[in-house]
Amino acid sequence: MNRTVLIAAGAILAVIAAGVVYLLTATQPKPSITVVSWGGAYLTSQIEAYHKPYMATHEAIITSESYSGGIALVKAQVESGAVTWDVVDFEVADAIRACDEGLLETIDLESLPPGADGKPATEDFLKGSLDPCYVATIVFSHIIAYDKSKFPTDPPTTAAAFFDLATYPGKRGLRRQNPKSTLELALYADGVPANLVPEVLKTPEGLDRAFAKLDTIKQDVVWWQEGAQPVQLLASGQVVMTTAYNGRIFDAVVGEGKPFATIWDGQRFDLDVWGIVKGTKNKALALDFLKFSTDTQRLADQARYIAYAPARASSIKIIEEPGFTHAIKGVRMLEYMPTAPQNAFNSITTDHRWWADHQEEVEARWNAWLAQ
Amino acid sequence: MTMTMAVTKRADATTRAAAVRFDNVSKTYDGHHLVIDGLSLDIGQGEFLTFLGPSGSGKTTSLMMLAGFETPTSGEIYLDGAPFTNVPPHKRGLGFVFQNYALFPHMSVAENLAFPLEVRQVPRASIKEKVERALTMVSLAGFGERRPQQLSGGQQQRVAVARALVFEPSLILMDEPLGALDKNLREQLQYEIRHLHRNLGVTIVYVTHDQSEAMTLSDRIAVFNKGFVEQIDAPRRLYDEPMTAFVAGFIGENNRLDGELTTLAGERGLVTLSGDCTVDAVCAAGLAPGARVVVSVRPERMSLGAREGANTIAARLEEQVYLGDHLRIAARTPGGRLVIAKIPNHDGLPALSLNDTVNLSFRPEDARALLLAEA
Amino acid sequence: MSTSGPTLARQLGRAEAKARLKSFGLVAPLLVFILASFALPIATLLVRSVHNPEVAAALPATAAALQIWDGARLPDEAAFGALAQDLLTAPEDALSRAASRFNSDLPGGRALLLLTARALKASKDAPSRARFVQIDPRWGEQQVWVQLGVALEVWTAKNFVTAMDYRYDENRAVVAQPREKQLYVTLFLRTLWVAGAVTLLCLVLGYPLAYVLAQAPQRLSNILMIFVLLPFWTSLIVRTTSWIVLLQDHGPINDMLLALGLIDDKSRLALIYNATGTLIAMTHILLPFMVLPLYSVMRGIPPTLTRAALSLGAPPFLAFLRVFLPLSVPGIAAGSLLVFILALGYYITPALVGGLSGELYSNQIAFHMQSSLNWGLASALSVILLSAVIGFYFVYMRIIGAEGLRLT
Hints:
Helix content of chain C: over 70%
CATH superfamily of the largest domain in chain C: MetI-like
Oligomer: heterotrimer
Largest sheet of chain C: 2 strands, antiparallel
Number of strands of chain C: 2
Strand order of the largest sheet of chain C: 1-2
CATH architecture of the largest domain in chain A: 3-Layer(aba) Sandwich
Distance between the termini of chain A: 89 Å
CATH class of the largest domain in chain A: Alpha Beta
Number of domains of chain A: 2
Helix content of chain A: 40-55%
Structural class of chain A: alpha/beta
Number of helices of chain A: 14
Low-confidence stretches of chain C: none
Largest sheet of chain A: 11 strands, mixed
CATH topology of the largest domain in chain C: MetI-like fold
Shape of chain C: extended
Order of helices and strands of chain C: HHHHHHHHHEEHHHHHHHHHH
Structural class of chain C: mainly alpha
Radius of gyration of chain A: 25 Å
Strand content of chain C: under 5%
Strand content of chain A: 15-25%
Number of helices of chain C: 19
Low-confidence stretches of chain A: none
Shape of chain A: elongated
Mean pLDDT of chain A: 90
C-alpha cells in the first residue's frame, strides 16, 4: 500500500519536473501581427515585397488575412474592444472615414524612413498620400478597358468614347456600389477639363450634370461590384467596354493574354494606404512593419508583381529604370503604370476629403438614381 | 342456376335481367399471380349481393373493378347489358360507400351530400330538398351544418351511406362499411342498411369478411377464396348445403370428419371414417368413390344418444360448457376426431362427466361429404 | 376527511410545481439561446432605429442650450458659447463619432464640427457667434442649426422619416424628398412584388411536383425528394454563380436559343442582371421551401377522398378542384408564407444576379450596415421589413386560420 503511494507520488513529480524543464527550454513564441488586405494578386505582391523580407530580417510572424474593403469590420472590432487586426490596407477614402470615426492610431510621419536620395518622407511621398492616420503604399487607377476584338478598326482612345454608343455600340460596365470616380468620369467625358473636375463636382449643377451624362448610357450598363468582375464581363462578352482597376486589366492582358486594351484618358488616381487599428496590442511592431514596408526599395519592389505605382517619388525613379521588369513575365512595368508620363496625361485627382464628407448624401442620390 | 337460387324475400329480383355481369374477368398486378381468376357472376336487379371472403381473396379487387378504380386484365364487366370496363369511374353513376367513410373533411354534412348533386347540376332548390330527405332517411335530420369530424363513427357512416344514395343511383357498392365500428353499432347499422335496401329497391354489392354480417344482410353471398368464387347462393343454402369444404368451414361452425367415400348411390354415399365407423352422407356433386372427403356436420345437428336412421359415432367427452340456452360439448372419437355438439336446453340437460363415453348421432341429410381440399 | 381537502390540494400543488420546474429546466437552455441570439438582437435593432445618443453625448451643453431655442432665427450667443465649451472639452473619439453621425444629417457636418473644434483649440480668441462664422460661414446659416438640433435628439424619428422618403426641411417640417432622392418606398414595393412573384412561381412549379411526389410510391418519392432537396445541399454562392454562367448573354441558354433560330445575335435575351435573373435564381433557391410543406400536407390527404369524389360523379379535374385542392390549402398557405417571408429578406442572390432592377430592400439594409455605416437607418429599414413580415403573418392567420397553417 505504502509502496503504491510512493510510486504514484514519484510519477507525478517526474511529470511536473518534465513540464518545468520543457517550459524553461522551449523557445519564446515570436511576436506576431495580423496584416489585413485585399486578396488575390494584390495580396501576393505585398507578401512578396513586404511580408517575406520583413520576416526574413525580423523576429516576427506576419499573419495575412483578406477582406473586401470598407470600415464596418474595423469599426465593430474597435467598438467591441476585441481588436484582432493590427495593420489594414484601406482605400484612402475609407481610411479618411475610419480616421474621422476615431478607428485609427496616429502615426508620427517624421519617423518614416527618408527616401533613397535622403529626402524626408514628408516630401518624398506623393501629394495627399500621407496623413497622421495613414501612409499610402500604392497609386492605382480607375481606367476604361475595352475588348480590342470588338473594335478592330478605329479603336476608342478617349473617355468620351465610353459614352458614345453610336460609334462604339455595346454594353458598358460600371461600378455599382459607389459613385466615386464614376461621377468624375462622367464630368470629364462631358467636357469638363481634367483639373477642374473635382471642383465642378462639388457644385449642385455639376452633380446634376454628372448624373445627366450617366443617364445617356444607363440603359446599356451592366453593373459590377467586385474588382474581378469587369475582366469576367469583358471576357464573356457581356460588355464591350468597362471601367476597371488598372491592375486587373494588366493581369488579364499580360498574365492571361486577353485581347483587352486600356484607355488612360481621364483615368482617376486612387490610393491604397496602411492604417493601424486603434487599440491594437502590437502597436510598436505594427509601426515597425509599416515603416519597413514603405521605404523606397520595398515600395518599388511591389511594382515587380503588380501594375500599381509606388506612392513615393524615389520609388517611382527606380521603376522608371529601363531594366525594371515584372518578376515573372519579364515585361517592362513602366508601360502599365498609371503614373507613367505617357499614361498620366489627362488624369483626374479625386478629392477624397470632399467625398468623405459628402459620400452619404451623394450615395443616397446614387442609390435612388439606380433604382429609378 | 342463379335464377333458382336467389330466392328469399324478393321473388321479383330473380326474374329481372342481371344488372351486372362479370364475364370471365381476371386481374393480375405483377403479371404472374392472378388476384382474380376467371370471375363470372351475375348480379340481379335490386339484389343485395355480398362478396364474402378472407382478406386477399379478391373480393375488394372485384368491387374496385366494378367501381372503375381498377381495370380487369382480361374479361369484361357489363352493366345492364352494356360493356362497362372502359367507362371512367365518374361516369358509372354508382354509389360507393368506403370503409373509412371518405367524407370530405372540409365540407359540412349537407355539403358532402350536395356534392354529387352539384356535380350533376341539379337545381339548387332541388338539392336542398334531396339533402334534407337523405338526412332524414338516415335519421340525421338537423345535422347538416356539422362537420364530419364532429360526428360519431356511426353517424359518419350514415352520412356516407346517405351521400351514396342521395343522387339515386341504381347500383350501390359498399366496401366493408361497418368494419371500423363496434359490435352494437354494427348490428344497428346492419339493420338500417337492410331497411334502406328494402325501401329503395336498389342493387347493392357489399364486401365484408364478416360472415354473420353477410348472412344478416344478403340476398345472396359470393364466397371468395384465392381469387375464385367458391359458391354463390342464398345464405341459407350456403349454410345448409355448402358445396366445398372451404365454404362449409368459412360460414358457421362445423365438424369436419375426414374419410374416404366408399360407395355412392345417387345423392347419398357411404364414407368410411378410418378408426371409427362408416357414415351415410349427402355427397357434393362430382364426387366419385375412393375420393378423400370431409364430412361436414353442423354442431347443432348432433344429438346425444343413438337414433333410428341416423349415423352414430361414439366418443369420449373431453369438455362441456354450459351456455344457458345450450350445452356445448367436445368429445374425441377412438379414431382421434374431435366432435363438437350443441345440445339444446329445452327438455333439461343430461348429467355428463368428463371421460364418459357418449354416442353422438346425426341424420344423413345433415351430413355433407365434400371434397377434401389440399392443405 | 374534511381536512384532507386542502392538504391534498397542497400536495398536488407541490407535485405540479416540481414537474413544472423540471420541464422549465429542460427548455431553459433553448430559452437562453433564443433570448441571446434572437430576442436580444431584435430588441437592439428596435432601439437603434430610434436611439441616437452619440451627438448628444459629445455635446451635452449644446443640447441643453438648444432645448430653449425657438428654431425661428439663429440661436443666441449662449448657444454658441455652449457649443464652444462642448467642442473644447469633448474627448476626441467621442467628438469623432458625433461628427460622423452629424454628417448623415448635414453633408459636410463632420468636417464642420471637427475643423471648428480644431480652430477653437488653436486660437485664444473668445468664442462668439462672430468667431464661429469667421471659422466657417455655415455657422451663420439657420439650416445648419436645425440639423444640429435634429442630430442632438437622443430619441429620434429621423431614420423612419428617411426610410419613408421624407426629410426635415429648414423649419423642421417633414417634407417629401426630392424625386431624385426617393428610393425606399419604391424599393419596398418592388420587394413585395418580387417576393409575391417568386411565391407564385414557386407555387406554380412546386404544386404539380409535390402532387407527383405525394402520389408516387414511397420509395420512388424518396428518390425524387433528393432532387428537390439538392439545392439545399449546394452553397448559395455556387448556385447563384451557376445561374450567372447559364443565363448570361453569351451563356448556354442564349446560345441554344440562337442555335434553334428562336432569337438572333442582336436580340439575345437579357436573363440576368435584371429582375428576370432575380426571379429565376430566387425561385430555384426557394422552391424546396414550397415543395416540402405541400408534399407533407398532400401525403396526409387520403386517396379515398379523390376516389369518393369520382364515384360521386365528379370528373377528375373537378374532383381535384373541389376536394384535393381545398384540402391542400394548408400546404399552400405554409409554403407560400415561408417562401414569401424568406424572399422579402433575400439579398445575396439579388445583389449578384439582380442588376439594378432586381435589387431588393435588404440590399439597402446591407448597404447601410456594411458600407455607409448608418446603422440607425439600417435598423429603421429592418424594423419596417420586420413589421411587414409580421403584418403578413397575421393577415395570413386571419385568412387561413391557425390550424390551417401547419408544416407537417
